[in-house]
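HOLO CASE FILE
Compound: IPE
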Amino acid sequence: MNDKAPGTPRHVAIIMDGNGRWARERGLPRIKGHEEGANSVRAVVRASKELGISYLTLYAFSVENWVRPKAEIEGLMDLLVRYLRGNEKELHEQKIRLRAMGRLEDLREDVRNELARVSDATAAYESGTLVFALSYGGRTEIANAAKRIARQAAAGTLDPESVDEKTVAANLYLPDVPDPDLLIRTSGEMRVSNFMLWQISYAELYVSPVMWPDFREENLKQAVAEYKRRRRRFGDIA
Ligand code: IPE
Ligand code: IPE
Ligand code: MG
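Model generated. Tokens follow.
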């Protein structure tokens, strides 16, 4: 018997990749791929709730993505505002709490305002959490935690000798969110692209060849089914 087989993952994190290639394959502008990708977000959020996944984190924009053409960045920000306005009702219906993590101060003001508004409006929901990683970088997050810890040590409120893994984890963006159990990347790329470097230390990895705009409920179900067949040993013997 597979006595170490895990149940439903509590936290699924997704690197949503392949929007541009999806569009190019169809002779469409990249933004059309992002637009269809927003429909995948809607579908996957709904499916996660149905599957009983408590936390879903979506990598929507990295700190590195700021090097992209201005028009694409603006298009993505417009889309984000549209997504938040258009899906607030559904988040309420499904009792899903919205949160965001990253260098949120870098985001356009209207994006920040919508994020704050919808996050506040849904803050009381406890059964499901949707986290958007925006202007997010794993190294930035860890460096930021180091800065906060150093400040506390300099102020004399923290003994440097007491710093351990718990101290670092407690100074990340969303310290109360458990580590991802399952990390999915779409479009077949075999890399983590600076995503949740600290938190994915023991996550199960699943790379799907499907481009994000085509990744829907069935694909998520397949990933979760595969996860359930894995054995998570955490360093122990089989
Ligand atoms: C993912 O799709 C969305 C973001 C990174 C914002 P891409 O835009 O990276 O699409 P590809 O990888 O170029 O196909
Ligand atoms: C990772 O995708 C970031 C997001 C999904 C937001 P990228 O398309 O930016 O990653 P690389 O550049 O291919 O590693
Ligand atoms: Mg990409």
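CASE NOTES: Residues 70-93 form the longest helix (24 residues). Residues 147 and 171 are 9 Å apart (CA to CA).
CLOSED: yes
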